[in-house]
Amino acid sequence: MPKSKVRDVPEINAGSMADIAFLLLIFFIVATTMDVDSGISTKLPPMPENEQEPPPPLKERNVFQVLVNANNQILVEGEWSDISKLKDEAKEFINNNGKKDNLSENPEKAVISLQNDRGTSYDMYIQVQNELKRAYNELRNEASQDKFGRKFNDLPADQQREIQKMYPMKISEAEPKNIGGL
């Protein structure tokens, strides 16, 4: 009987396997998108100290009340309103300068009080926030155009601070509660 030849199994070069794995890892890191939750940037007041004095009382006329119920209906100063009118109503209140007795004495004393129901939709909450901030932004733009001849965002920092002093954004947000049908 002839002697059988044992065939050698050819080796696989594994040297490049590490390179391939590394390239796949880089590909998946670069190609994967990460969802980043973004929220509303709001500056919160500092934590109250025990020895801190209570805030001074506000005159009723300097507080602009906005309530949003679970049905996403808006009650402004005790009357039903619509989101499309909110910005103009807020601007009129803030920029009253004591002309009407039922509106703010001046922009520096004006405070917007916002309260939502726990059932208010997030979309409505954002819309109301946007409209109130838009009212302040438009007033600041108008004041900067009158005083400096340029838009608020185009002003240098010191002039922006001057306009912000004229129209300080005072939006007080109360903790949500069950307002119901108002």
- Tally the beta strands: 5
Distance between the termini: 104 Å
Q: How would a crystallographer describe the biggest sheet?
A: 5 strands, mixed
Number of helices: 4
Q: Could you spell the SSE succession in H and E letters?
A: HEEEHEHHE
Strand content: 5-15%
Unreliable runs, pLDDT <50, ≥5 residues?
Answer: none
Q: What is the share of helical residues? A: 25-40%
Strand arrangement, major sheet: 3-2-1-4-5
How would you sum up the global shape?
elongated
Radius of gyration: 30 Å
Determine the mean pLDDT. Answer: 84
Structural class: alpha/beta
What's the short version?
Helix content is 35%, strand content 12%. By secondary structure, the protein is of the alpha/beta class.
